[in-house]
Amino acid sequence: MNESIIFIAMATVAVVLGVIVVVVIKSLSRGSSAPKQTTQQKEDEPKITLEDLLIIVSDKDSTKEEIAKASLYFIQKFPIPAKNRGRVPSDAIPYLKFVSLVSGHKKSDAKLISYLTNELDKQHAEYIAEIEQYKNMGLRARF
Q1: Nearest 5°: phi and psi at 84?
Q2: Buried (b) or exposed (e) across 89-119, using 16+ Cβ within 10 A?
Q3: Is the overall model pTM greater than 0.70, yes or no?
Q4: Half-sphere exposure of 102 (CA within 13 A, CB side)
Q5: Mean pLDDT (whole number) for 7-36
Q6: Which residues of 10-47 are buried (b: 16+ CB within 10 A; e: fewer)?
Q7: Which range has the worst mean pLDDT, 6-20, 35-49, 124-138?
Q8: Residues 137, 60, 109, 90: is their CA dihedral positive or negative?
């Protein structure tokens, strides 16, 4: 009798362990397929170019929220090209023009302009003077 109880207990433990292993394997396989879907979703998103951002911030009808989103996207996705021997390359001018357009837009507030320039100063220390110059150009254009 004791042997049959021990056998039943061992069989029950084996079945429970088998179920646990199956659940863990299925949860791991679901976890690995989820990133593939998010990667595929990112590929389906339209690519936003610097020209698109320049169009948004140069449009007088753009809202404060659109300008703020464009600025955040610019900070995150568009690093300013490095200087060549201490000089600003010509392909960096549109990046600096973005700063001027945001600063000069009538719906940009001081908080947004300050955030944009501070974040760019942190990321691009070699451009601090140029960022300040283009910010001031935009601010002068407001009046």
Answers
A1: -105, 110
A2: eeebebbbbbbbbbbbbebbeeebbeebbeb
A3: no
A4: 34
A5: 71
A6: eeeeeeeeeeeeeeeeeeeeeeeeeeeeeeeeeeeeee
A7: 35-49
A8: negative
- Residue 87 has phi, psi (to 5 degrees) of -110, 145
Token pair 């009538």: residue: 106
- Strand-pair partners of 87: 84
What burial class does residue 75 get, using C-beta atoms within 10 Å of its C-beta: 0-12 exposed, 13-18 middle, 19+ buried?
Answer: middle
Please answer whether residues 93 and 134 qualify as being in contact, where contact means their C-beta atoms are separated by less than 8 angstroms. Answer: no
Name the token pair of 44: 């389906």
The single-letter code of the amino acid at 22 is V
